[in-house]
Every structure is written in C-alpha cells, then in structure tokens.
Amino acid sequence: MRLRNKPWAEDFIKTHSTIALPDPESYKGNWKSVFNNDNPLHIEVGTGKGQFITGMAMANPHINYIGIELYGSVLVSAIENVLEAGTPANLKLLNVDGSKLKEFFEKGDVDRVYLNFSDPWPKTRHAKRRLTHANFLRLYEDVLVDQGEIHFKTDNRGLFEFSLVSMSQYGMMLKDVSLDLHAEMPEDNIMTEYEEKFSAKGQPIYRLEAQYKA
Ligand code: SAM
C-alpha cells in the first residue's frame, strides 16, 4: 500500500467517530452494545481502503463487521467508502494495530477473522511480521470463539505457502483451499482493492479457510 501523507487524516477520522470508533478498549467484551444486537462479529485485519468490508457489510446485514487499519491516511479512504455506501449500521472501523487485538477484544468477542492481501514480508528475518505467523494465529485464537475461523486471500504464492504450513503446524483444520479463486469465482466473492488489481493482471488469487480445533 503506497502511503500518501495526509496531515488532515487525524481530524477527518475524529469527525467521523461514529464510523471509526475512537476508544475501542472501552468496548472490550461488550461489542454487542455498539451494534445493539446479538449478531456474529467478523473482523478484517489490514482492511486498507475498505472495499471488502463495506461490500460484506452491505451483502450480509445480519453480521456485524469491523475493519482494522493501522494507517490513518489509508483509513480515510475506508471512511469515504463507508459514507458512499450509506454508512451501514453493521460496520465500524478501527484505526489501530492488529497486533494489539487483545486490548480491544476478549476471548469469544469475534466469530471470524478475515485477512486479505496481507503484506507478504518476503525476507525470512521478517517472518514474524506476517499476519499468518504462529504468534498472530495465537492472538486471533485469543479473541475468537471456540472453533473460530480465519478466511485468507492473497496473490502472493510465498505468503500462501507459508500460511498453509503455519496454520497446519498450529493444528488448524484447513477447510477450503483454492489455488485459483477466480477460476471458480464463487457468487458471494467480494473483491478487495488488491484483488481487483492483481486479478486484472491475470495473476491467480489464492484463498483458504482455516478453523481452530476444539
Ligand atoms: N486488505 C486490503 C486489500 O486487499 O485490498 C489492503 C491490502 S494492503 C497490502 C495491507 C493493509 O494492511 C495495508 O493497508 C496496511 O496498512 C494494513 N496493515 C498492515 N499491518 C497491519 C496491522 N498490524 N494492523 C492493521 N493493519 C495493518
């Protein structure tokens, strides 16, 4: 993701505090109060400009969604996407670091984690930064319901291979693996910005669903 410095991003985020929640710690264990319902909660770590999470929220009004993005300058575009979509009530954004999930969620708060086109960190010495490294899998497990799931898409073959090994060594059950998602093109697939970009160049999109064991 190319970052453009947007000095006004912080103010923009503050003025949209009903979409990008300013104090996520205060909802830990109590996210139902944010959405005023008991519906499942799905989160996306590294939501980027928010095309996927906004599309999912519009397509699935009985699921609550939270998009998590580290950079304020990127989250601005996600907020704009949410506004354009008419501000779905089942969607919130957080401008926080996904490695700190436990500050915002307690065990069982989250029903599913989405990871889409996560930064590949190709150098071996950076393996721990990959969002499918065992340390992150432990983190997601600590906030997910029992037998919760991770749904992961990427164009990056190296990261995909690493993730398959990482998840199976962690003891997760791989439920669905595709080496060319767009050849199958399931009707309910919502494309991310990166997915549109890479698939337009003819690159295969890899996808998996993995579930934590009981
Ligand atoms: N998911 C989007 C897509 O598929 O189009 C964006 C993909 S982009 C390559 C990865 C995004 O993850 C970037 O916006 C980056 O800022 C964000 N990101 C990386 N590490 C993160 C972290 N620890 N917490 C939250 N967001 C993170």
Automatic annotation (TrEMBL):
**Does the record carry Transferase as a key word?**
yes
Q: What is its EC number?
A: 2.1.1.33
* Positions with a binding annotation for S-adenosyl-L-methionine: E44, E69, D97, D119
Q: Which SUPFAM superfamilies match?
A: S-adenosyl-L-methionine-dependent methyltransferases (SSF53335)
Q: In which pathway does it act?
A: tRNA modification; N(7)-methylguanine-tRNA biosynthesis
Question: Which residues are noted in the entry as substrate-binding?
Answer: K123, D155, T192, E193, Y194, E195
Reactions catalysed, as given in the entry: guanosine(46) in tRNA + S-adenosyl-L-methionine = N(7)-methylguanosine(46) in tRNA + S-adenosyl-L-homocysteine
Keyword annotations for this protein? Answer: Methyltransferase, S-adenosyl-L-methionine, Transferase, tRNA processing
User: InterPro entries from the xrefs?
Assistant: SAM-dependent_MTases_sf (IPR029063), tRNA_(Gua-N-7)_MeTrfase_Trmb (IPR003358), tRNA_methyltr_TrmB_bact (IPR055361)
* GO MF term list: tRNA (guanine(46)-N7)-methyltransferase activity
Pfam families given in the database record? Methyltransf_4
HAMAP family, alphabetically?
tRNA_methyltr_TrmB
Cross-referenced PANTHER family: 3-DEOXY-D-MANNO-OCTULOSONIC-ACID TRANSFERASE/TRNA GUANINE-N 7 - -METHYLTRANSFERASE (PTHR23417), PENTACOTRIPEPTIDE-REPEAT REGION OF PRORP DOMAIN-CONTAINING PROTEIN (PTHR23417:SF14)
What does this chain do? Catalyzes the formation of N(7)-methylguanine at position 46 (m7G46) in tRNA.
The record's comment on protein family reads: Belongs to the class I-like SAM-binding methyltransferase superfamily. TrmB family.
Name of the featured protein: tRNA (guanine-N(7)-)-methyltransferase
Tell me what gene encodes this: trmB
